[in-house]
Amino acid sequence: MTRSLDSGVILLARIALAVLFLWGGLMKLAGYEDFVAYLHSVGLPFVSIAAPLSTALDLIGGLFLIVGFKVQPLALVMAVYTVATAILGHDFWNIADPVMHHDMTVHFWKNIGIAGGFLLLNVTGAGRISVDNARAAEGVGSLTSHRGSTRAG
């Protein structure tokens, strides 16, 4: 189990990651037609599936991160999603304009860094301040209560 300070830091990390994805999901919803057009412009296949899936993953993933629900598997999904977004959406190697090349390079490596944060979150888990921890404590508590009720007293 992590120390209290560690759990607070993990909570802050979850919130920091969640804000980025919640904001992105809300922006996708607000400009959904533009988002779909962008996905078409980068040649993404199955845009009719990818656009709502991406939007839902941003919003639901962000909410799950904040409350700390299913964080370890979610972190792996979000790491893969973030790397895929880096490769498909920030392909700096195809950009000739020096300013755009620099911008896309920064965004690409930012996404790789975020994926690294998700991988760390996968290892650490959600911390004490989370639904995951509360659910684990309930499972242990109910097992203990059950054992206690079968003992002769």
Automatic annotation (TrEMBL):
It is a multi-pass membrane protein. Its main location: membrane. GO terms for cellular component: plasma membrane. The keyword Transmembrane helix applies. Pfam families: DoxX. The chain crosses the membrane at residues 7-26, 46-67, 74-96, 108-126. It comes from the Bacteria. It is found in: Cell membrane. Keywords: Cell membrane, Membrane, Transmembrane, Transmembrane helix. Belongs to the DoxX family. This is Inner membrane protein YphA. It comes from Pararobbsia alpina. The gene is yphA.
